[in-house]
Amino acid sequence: MKKGLFITFEGLEGAGKSTQIKKVEKHLASKGFASIVTREPGGTFIGDELRDILLDIENKDIDYKVEALFYAASRAQLVSKVIKPALQNGKFVLSDRYIDSSLAYQSYGRGLPLDLILECNKWAISDMMPDITFLLRLGAEEGLRRCQDRTADRIESESLDFHQRVENGYDELAQMYKDRYRVIDAKSDPEIVSQKIIEEIDKLLATAKVK
Q1: Domain 6-208's class?
Q2: pTM, whole model, 2 decimals?
């Protein structure tokens, strides 16, 4: 039985997910809650091996179906070996990306059937869905601009059109899963973004009666 809370962070490249996760981890620690931070793809030895393949700029010829299956495989390993045990032990899990990334990138971005991507990933995660998902909402052009100072990986180097499709996909997902999603304007100052996220988490803590 799950005892901890599962919080995921979604958004385009450059949205500031890593920065906000660190702030949330610190906030939870100040309240006495133990948490672990993980990322996708990756978070396990096998997942990190798949991450290297998926993000390698040289692997541009990966079939979209293979790409989708690799992401699901990495996610299945992460749930089995990291997320599920942590939640059962009463820890919070803060994940930089999760199932919604596959829906946004492989379905809306790549054009693969949404229902197939959803069913494949629900099977991979054993229906372990997040308690709350923060979408750090940032336009594709601004996100790519923020990433200009680093070497782009295979996904980051995709066309603006691709990233705009992903952006639109996230907007649709936020409407589909209103109960779970919290949309935060990532164009704001990071401290303002952090404040809004922490307010939502504190509401969740109160309603979930986590001790």
Answers
A1: alpha beta
A2: 0.95
